[in-house]
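Dear H.,

Thanks for agreeing to be a second pair of eyes. The structure we're designing against is below in token form, covering all 307 positions.
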């Protein structure tokens, strides 16, 4: 059983890290605006409400297209707020934009600085923050001979370090062959980078670009049985597109980890029809149930073939 998995939001509880990023944005914006913490908090509340009111238009903007939408992706709220400030739709946003641009090259550079500096500091302070039950799931999968390959936009060292804390060795997937060790990781997987075409899939009115060559190359190389992730656009859209194409490396099953904020358009993308997500779970600890079901299905198929 070969599993390709996202990391943050599947194996971790990202709320703590996201709160730390928010605190950095408040501090840094306070510096450029020369404003008190409370005033900056009030501004950010206004910007967050504005982007969440039009989530189809805001998110992780790459080359004028959204790599993920703000309502499905916990981590892209700062980027979406940066986009809102840059658009300067209100007097408050224009003030913030002018203040940031006096000291920073662009809103993207400013928000990237807030995001990356916090995440780097977070990794130094927190050496493991796996979600409840993650270790048990890992042991269960390993005992059944499964291989797990993480494809994550986080740096590989984060995953390697956190699992080392729990006594598990994770190999760098780019330096090792698929199947050579049970746990491997592609860091900085580039799930957000687009190729030259505008190929996309429609999920209940949201257009999700699926020409993402870096992530596609990983799925092609790993040829997984299962792909699991918590953000449809980043983690599951490419494997679903490959399945629709009848690509031989497409996964047999896709699994969505639904979080508290997961929007209706994503939940409605789960179903038995081609191009839909196969399973939805509310937590990683439900993954063994799906793997068990697949294993039984496979055994039944093998015995039928034997007859
Ligand atoms: Mg994730």
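And this is the sequence the design step returned. I haven't edited it by hand at all.
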């Amino acid at each position: 059983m070969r599993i390709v998995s996202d990391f943050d939001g599947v194996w971790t509880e990202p709320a703590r890290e996201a709160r730390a990023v928010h605190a950095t944005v408040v501090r840094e914006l306070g510096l450029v605006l020369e404003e008190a913490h409370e005033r900056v908090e009030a501004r950010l509340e206004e910007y967050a409400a504005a982007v969440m009111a039009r989530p189809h238009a805001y998110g992780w903007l790459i080359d004028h297209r959204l790599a993920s939408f703000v309502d499905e992706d916990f981590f892209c709220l700062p980027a979406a707020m940066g986009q809102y400030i840059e658009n300067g739709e209100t007097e408050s946003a224009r003030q913030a934009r002018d203040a940031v641009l006096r000291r920073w090259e662009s809103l993207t550079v400013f928000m990237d600085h807030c995001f990356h500096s916090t995440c780097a500091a977070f990794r130094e302070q927190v050496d493991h923050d796996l979600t409840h039950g993650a270790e048990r799931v890992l042991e269960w999968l390993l005992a059944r001979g499964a291989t797990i390959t993480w494809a994550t936009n986080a740096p590989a060292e984060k995953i390697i370090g956190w699992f080392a804390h729990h006594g598990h060795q994770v190999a760098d997937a780019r330096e090792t062959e698929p199947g050579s060790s049970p746990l491997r990781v592609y860091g900085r997987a580039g799930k957000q980078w687009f190729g030259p075409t505008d190929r996309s899939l429609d999920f209940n009115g949201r257009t999700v670009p699926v020409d993402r060559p870096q992530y596609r190359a990983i799925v092609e190389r790993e040829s997984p049985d299962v792909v699991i992730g918590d953000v449809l656009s980043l983690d599951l859209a490419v494997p679903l597109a490959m399945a629709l194409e009848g690509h031989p490396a497409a996964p047999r099953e896709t699994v969505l980890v639904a979080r508290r904020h997961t929007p209706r358009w994503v939940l409605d993308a789960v179903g038995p029809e081609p191009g839909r997500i196969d399973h939805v779970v509310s937590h990683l600890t439900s993954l063994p149930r799906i793997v068990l079901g697949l294993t039984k299905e496979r055994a039944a198929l093998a015995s039928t073939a034997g007859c």
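Two observations from my side: The two ends are 24 Å apart (CA to CA). The pocket of magnesium ion is lined by residues 6, 8-10, 229-231 (CB under 6 Å).

Warmly,
E.
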